[in-house]
Specification:
Layout (H helix, E strand, L loop, with lengths): L10 E3 L4 E4 L6 H10 L3 E2 L5 E2 L5 E4 L10 H13 L3 E3 L3 H10 L11 H14 L1 H16 L4 E6 L2 E7 L13 H9 L2 E4 L5 E3 L12 E4 L8 E3 L2 E3 L9 E7 L3 E6 L20
Helix pairs in contact: 2-5, 3-5, 4-5
Length: 274
């Protein structure tokens, strides 16, 4: 077990605008297509930059299930280092980070695909480059904040988080806060082994600031009580969605296919209760 890097700042300025992207899960081709639709342009140094200085913010779960976890890890390592993007902590990110740190974790639910990608990467590029990739990825994932407070003109206007957050947790850090942000409000496990999730957004008593979250796939972006879910299950054959602030606009691109290998996906199981 190595030294855990210091957590990056959980405050992001949206004075020039911010684009928040939902769960990518290794769908790199769709991710790049979405960036181009949002107006980002690739520059000679290989980074993607917006001509108006907008920031890119990921809700986490950039790896696992899909085909290109390494490309996603490399993208965010380079762009976070360059100050062009940010990313919050997530359940898959936390699991992969602990595995990269040598901790005893069981890779499942698509995380095993990250291990396979890195194994093939080492075969192609050698152990030295693979070791550097692992360390850069470990530091990127471990240093991601539990949630991101988005400010405009020094005022809190939005919060970005992977799976959800209670309003009294905003700005706080503790094991309970991290757990809630990674997994949502979980009330145990059902007979089929799936987590029983409380609808934290449905129980929210205020509507400001807006909370943008992912983790729980819905066929379309879902607004409720000042929250908006932008996980449209790209890796399951759905869509990859971005929320643009301050425009309050949604931009989506369709998945090229269902990468998960599953026929019974969260999207096929989806039932509306509204």
């Amino acid at each position: 077990m190595r030294h855990k890097p210091q957590t990056r700042s959980k405050v992001l300025s949206a004075d020039d605008g911010v684009d928040i992207v939902g769960d990518v899960h290794g769908c790199y081709d769709e991710f790049i297509e979405l960036l181009k639709r949002l107006g980002y342009e690739q520059t000679p140094d290989g980074t993607y930059r917006h001509p108006h200085g907008r920031k890119l913010l990921s809700l986490g779960d950039i790896t696992s299930r899909g085909p290109y976890s390494i490309k996603m890890l490399q993208f965010f390592h380079h762009h976070v280092t360059a100050g062009l993007a940010e990313m919050v902590d997530s359940n898959h990110g936390w699991k992969v980070a602990r595995w990269l740190d040598g901790r005893p974790v069981t890779l499942a639910h698509g995380d095993e695909k990250v291990e396979e990608e890195i194994r093939l990467y080492q075969q192609e590029y050698g152990p030295k480059k693979a070791s550097l990739l692992r360390e850069q990825s470990r530091r990127l994932l471990f240093s991601s904040p539990s949630h991101m407070i988005i400010k405009r003109n020094e005022k809190i206007v939005a919060v970005a988080v992977h799976a959800g957050i209670r309003d009294d947790y905003i700005g706080m850090d503790s094991p309970a806060v991290y757990t809630f942000c990674r997994y949502g409000d979980v009330a145990g496990t059902g007979p089929d082994g799936r987590p029983i999730r409380r609808e934290w957004a449905k129980e929210r008593k205020v509507t400001s600031p807006i909370i943008v979250w992912g983790h729980d796939p819905h066929p379309e972006p879902k607004r409720k009580n000042g929250t908006i879910n932008i996980d449209q299950g790209c890796v399951f054959g759905g869509m990859l969605t971005a929320y643009r602030y301050p425009e309050d606009e949604l931009v989506s691109v369709p998945a090229k296919r269902n990468y998960s290998g599953l026929t019974d996906t969260p999207l096929t199981r989806f039932k509306t209760d509204d």
